[in-house]
Amino acid sequence: MMQPFEFKPIGIIHSCFKEKFGIPRQSRLIPEAEARLEIVPPYNRAEAFRELVDYSHIWVMFVFHESPRDAWKPTVRPPRLGGNQRVGVFASRSPMRPNPIGLSVVELVKLDLSNNSVTLHLAGIDFLDGTPVLDIKPYLPYVDAVPDAESGYAPDAPGERIELSYSAAAEKALEQLPAMEARHLRQLIQGILQNDPRPAYLDEAKRSQFGMRLYDFNIRWEITGGAFHVTELQSIEEYPAG
């Protein structure tokens, strides 16, 4: 009989995504999606990351820490099939797995070794804030990329250019931010909505308004006739309680 294994996280993710809704379903779909990976003791030793800075991308192995942990199911409903067709769990990237382990390729933007700490700045992420990280490894294009690989029921990347507008109140809120921060937030919102975070099984006739939290902002948006419209953009500090 195989012995069970116990893993200790090497770090924790500080992500722009503060809740699951809005997170892209795969990494690298939204380049503007950023996170910091804080390495925790005793793994935060600079020598453990020697030469990593020479790699542009890394593999991150992590835990789906907020996925329900009831009895596992052998089949799941992938969003790419409209949420109404089942496939085997091992033919999917669903977080609903026997072991809640995820694997993503992300861009390594910066490796910060200052102040006796180790922090990796990442982009193109699909991590929830607070995600525990089990391991990282460098991405090697000559073995990790397979140009002629087949992709089953998900042959192409999702996302199409959308019509996106902002209310006067949302525009005013963006104008109050530093120009670079406002531009980044616009690009991030564009990428998220372009990949349509709504559940595949959603009845559009019953729900057209949505909300999500990015960084320290609460954002509300709606969709009408295929066009997306951001109605509110408020900082968490300004947002009314309840």
- Count of helix runs: 3
Mean residue pLDDT: 91
CATH superfamily (homologous) name of the largest domain: YaeB-like
Radius of gyration (CA) equals 19 Å
Strand content: 25-35%
Overall geometry: globular
Q: Report the CATH topology name of the largest domain.
A: Elongation Factor Tu (Ef-tu), domain 3
Helical/strand content category: mainly beta
What CATH architecture label of the largest domain applies?
Answer: Beta Barrel
Distance between the termini: 51 Å
- Fraction of helical residues: 10-25%
Number of domains: 2
How would you spell out the order of helices and strands?
EEEEEEEEHEHHEEE
In the CATH hierarchy, what is the class of the largest domain?
Mainly Beta
Question: How does this structure look, described?
Answer:
Helix content is 12%, strand content 30%. The protein is mainly beta. It folds into two domains: 11-144, Elongation Factor Tu (Ef-tu), domain 3; 164-235, YaeB-like fold. The chain has a six-stranded antiparallel beta barrel. Strands 9-12-11-10 form a four-stranded mixed sheet. The chain has a two-stranded antiparallel sheet with strand order 4-5. A hairpin with a 2-residue loop joins strand 10 and strand 11 (217-224).
